[in-house]
Write a structure and sequence with these properties.
By secondary structure, this protein is of the alpha/beta class. About 30% of the residues lie in helices and about 25% in strands. It folds into two domains: about 160 residues, Lyase, Ornithine Decarboxylase, Chain A, domain 1; about 190 residues, Alpha-Beta Barrel (TIM Barrel). The protein contains twelve helices and 18 strands. The strands form two sheets. Strands 1, 11, 12, 13, 14, 15, 16, 17 and 18 form a nine-stranded mixed sheet that branches. An eight-stranded parallel beta barrel has the order 2-3-4-5-6-8-9-10, surrounded by four helices.
């Protein structure tokens, strides 16, 4: 596929490698998700997918809630002017300092994952003569889902609280009044693109939450269905059929309300909202022919897009890659001729390969550009940016046909200088 000229001016102005995020696609995804889940549910943006402050403000302007998983993410949101009552704190292994930070900032809720976290919060609140609201992140039985592998989740993991532990936790909460359980949270799916599997999963959560509420006679102000909405990474993968999920969410809302659960119903998403809106663009630095292979080397790599490395990429599956010629002029004959390429980055490591079977024009030249799609989520900030001392890539927001710089390139010297200044302070 040939990428459109909308990136050409951005490339010329800001140079490569860089990320581009399309504002219109982001807003379209938000609207699509709102239409699918209906007015009974609220969207929670999983900040770990992409924490760029300008994007956070865009999600905030669309009235989304936010999920963080570290005190660093929480601090960033607060510094962006996001109100504490719009923030939930998740993740395993929360430290006492992180829990205290959450209590001090009075966020909407902490999704607790162990008895230790609850006991630590009780101690913190007793010392400060205050209270805190929590949701219990629970692990439910998914045996009823025939193709549960498509949920992309381990049956046993470090996350959440198993159901058999709930009796002990409920006894503790009823005898200690500082920590108030206001909801339940389930997250046992990731990047699901099959709407039928996602429907089975959501109904399994719904029925189990109703059972828990009936068993323990608890009142729920929040029911958090977690994430799971997927975005295709590879060629041939289907898009999630969000339209056919509409009836699912309507039925779930009815079941919960019929069970006298009138609290807030939440759905988390990161990858679905931002993944397809992102593009990673890099220069072709070199093209080599070796042992019957055509190898393209770019001026970026897995230090910016770790999930594309040979260590993470699913072998045999190909990612969608576009191209932009430095020279606009190209005959139809040139466009039709194709070659199979391996695409490697500029890092001095053998795992820095981003594609092993990319079909692209045979006459690509150094100076042309490759465009990696679906690069909006779990890319730049989920990669080893400082590895081998290459610069961090720029980030640009494409809005109304114009590119706006939202993150400048950063060199290793910039980072070391900042570290030295902090040490001196």
């Amino acid at each position: 596929m040939d990428a459109t000229d909308k990136f050409r001016n951005i490339i010329e102005k800001y140079k490569t490698p860089l990320f581009v995020y399309d504002r219109d696609i982001i807003l379209s995804k938000i609207e699509d998700m709102k239409q699918t889940i209906g007015e009974n549910f609220e969207i929670v943006y999983s900040m770990k997918a992409n924490p760029n402050p300008v994007l956070l403000q865009l999600f905030h302007s669309s009235n989304l809630l936010f999920e963080v998983a570290s005190s660093g993410e929480l601090s960033l949101l607060l510094n962006c002017g996001i109100a504490p009552e719009k923030i939930l704190f998740a993740g395993p292994g929360k430290t006492a300092d992180e829990l205290k930070f959450c209590v001090d900032k009075k966020i909407l809720s902490i999704n607790v994952e162990s008895m230790r976290e609850i006991a630590t919060l009780e101690t913190i609140c007793s010392e400060q003569n205050t209270n805190v609201d929590i949701c219990l992140r629970i692990n439910i039985n998914l045996d009823s889902i025939a193709n549960r592998r498509e949920l992309n989740w381990f049956s046993t993991s470090k996350f959440g609280i198993d159901e058999h532990c709930l009796d002990e936790i409920v006894v503790f909460l009823r005898s200690h009044k500082r920590v108030r359980c206001i909801g339940l949270h389930v997250h046992m799916a990731s990047n699901v693109t099959n709407h039928e599997i996602l429907t089975e999963y959501l109904f399994a959560i719904c029925h189990q939450i109703i059972n828990i509420m009936d068993k323990f006679k608890i009142t729920l102000k929040i029911v958090n269905f977690g994430g799971g909405w997927g975005n295709p990474n590879y060629l041939g993968e289907r898009e999630l059929d969000s339209y056919n999920l509409r009836q699912t969410y309507k039925k779930i809302a009815y079941l919960l309300k019929n069970s006298k659960i009138n609290g807030r119903m939440l759905v988390e998403s990161g990858r679905y909202l931002i993944g397809s809106a992102g593009y990673y663009i890099a220069d072709i630095v070199d093209i080599k022919e070796r042992a019957n292979k055509n190898i393209i080397v770019i001026n970026g790599g897995i230090n910016h897009m770790l999930f594309l490395s040979s260590a993470f990429r699913i072998r045999g599956k190909q990612i969608p890659i576009g191209y932009i010629r430095k020279n606009k002029k190209c005959s139809k004959r040139e466009v039709s001729a194709k070659k199979i390429y391996e695409i490697g980055g500029s890092l001095c490591t053998p795992i820095d390969y981003m594609a092993n079977h990319a079909e692209l024009p045979s006459d690509l030249k150094p100076g042309d550009y490759l465009v990696f799609t679906n690069a909006g989520a779990y890319t730049k900030m989920a990669s080893p940016l400082n590895f081998l001392g290459h610069d961090w890539p720029s980030e640009v927001l494409l809005s109304h046909g114009e590119g706006h710089l939202i993150a400048s390139p950063i060199s290793l010297n910039d980072i070391i200088s900042l570290q030295n200044r902090l040490q001196q302070d």
